[in-house]
Amino acid sequence: MKKYILTHIDDSEYACIVTILDYEIRLSYYLSELWFPFNAELRKKVLVDLALKSGVDEFRFVDFPICQNGKIDISRHAYVNVETRVESMANEVLCENSEIVNNSILSEEKKRKILSVC
């Protein structure tokens, strides 16, 4: 089973969305495996979607900066509210993986809320 899905997006702030699919994973372990091209002028971040770990609430999205070596700085993060357009892209990933959503540990109410946008 996939642990996460990496979706590159065309956004001024974020390089990609990392959708976490497995509630049991140690987030720092998987994020430390990823590498991204670094551009000092753009200063992009990685947006992590934790909907399948925490639900669709204020703890859904976390952003992490990309260091000069292209790795994610897991020591610096912030829970964020994202633009509707970015949230829609994240929702599309979950809709395309509805079987994983349905088999997640989330309550039935949270599953319905996530899949209601499909």
Describe the structure.
The chain contains five helices and five strands. With about 120 residues, the chain is an alpha+beta fold. It has one domain (about 5-115). The protein has a five-stranded mixed beta sheet. A hairpin with a 5-residue loop joins strand 1 (about 5-10) and strand 2. The mean pLDDT is about 90. Pfam families: RnlB_antitoxin. This is Type II toxin-antitoxin system RnlB family antitoxin.
* β-strand amount: 15-25%
Order of helices and strands: EEHEHEEHHH
Determine the N-to-C terminus distance. 22 Å
Query: What's the overall geometry?
Result: globular
What can be said about this structure in brief?
With 118 residues, this protein is of the alpha+beta class. The chain contains 5 helices and 5 strands.
Please specify the SSE layout and strand pairing.
Elements: E1 4-8, E2 14-20, H1 27-33, E3 45-49, H2 51-54, E4 61-65, E5 78-79, H3 84-96, H4 98-102, H5 108-115
Parallel strand pairs: 2-3
Antiparallel strand pairs: 1-2, 3-4, 4-5
Question: Notable features of this structure?
Answer:
118 residues; alpha+beta; 5-stranded mixed sheet; 5 helices; Type II toxin-antitoxin system RnlB family antitoxin; RnlB/LsoB_antitoxin
